[in-house]
Amino acid sequence: MWEALAGSGIGIGVALPLGYLIARSEIAAAALQPYVAASQAMPAVALAPLLALWIGYGLLPIAVLCALLVFFPIIVNTVLGLRSLDPDVMGAARVDGVGWWGMLWYIELPLALPSVLAGVRNGLTLSITGAVVGEFVMGGDGLGQLLSVQRQEADTIGLFSTLVMLGLLAAVLYGVVRLVERLVQRD
């Protein structure tokens, strides 16, 4: 769980500003979108050994792997949410003299938040997959490592129970973000 949460934090921290940059700059969009798309063509199982070689073993490389999986749905939904804002609302705010920071904080962020949170919700559930794949390849002491041991011992009941636990963890993360979405929508 720690790897998934750490990776989610890294992924969110990179995807949100990059998504804003892509949504607001045609030059950045042209330069970065092909690489964002290409990042999804590389399987996590293939990246994990490279991360182990470059970064080493432990929490950090697994968190980075999780961040790579979390990154894509968040950046895509952030760009979509920002690009779909009503231009009349944006224009009216500019006419009223709202500056860049005010536009971001009071107009763009609140209006794009449902889309951004949908990306975070999807990304967080993928972070569980990243943690499991990372532990398969790089070791660790979490549920991914437990699955490896159970597979080697042909422990069918253990495999099923661990898979159920992984599903429950993903569902809890999904539910927490849905709760945040509902709380934000009430305000």
Radius of gyration over C-alpha positions, nearest whole angstrom: 19 Å
Q: What composes the largest sheet? A: none
As a percent range, the share of strand residues is under 5%
Q: Uncertain runs with pLDDT below 50, 5 residues or more?
A: none
Describe the structure.
- The protein contains 8 helices and no strands.
- Helices cover 87% and strands 0% of the residues.
- By secondary structure, it is an all-alpha fold.
- It is elongated.
- Helix 7 (143-152) packs antiparallel against helix 8 (156-186).
- The longest helix has 39 residues, at 100-138.
- It has helices at residues 2-24, 26-38, 44-55, 59-83, 87-95, 100-138, 143-152, 156-186.
In short:
This protein has 187 residues and is mainly alpha-helical. It contains eight helices and no strands.
Provide the descriptors you would attach to this structure in a database record.
187 residues, mainly alpha, elongated, cell membrane
Secondary-structure blueprint:
Blueprint: H1 2-24, H2 26-38, H3 44-55, H4 59-83, H5 87-95, H6 100-138, H7 143-152, H8 156-186
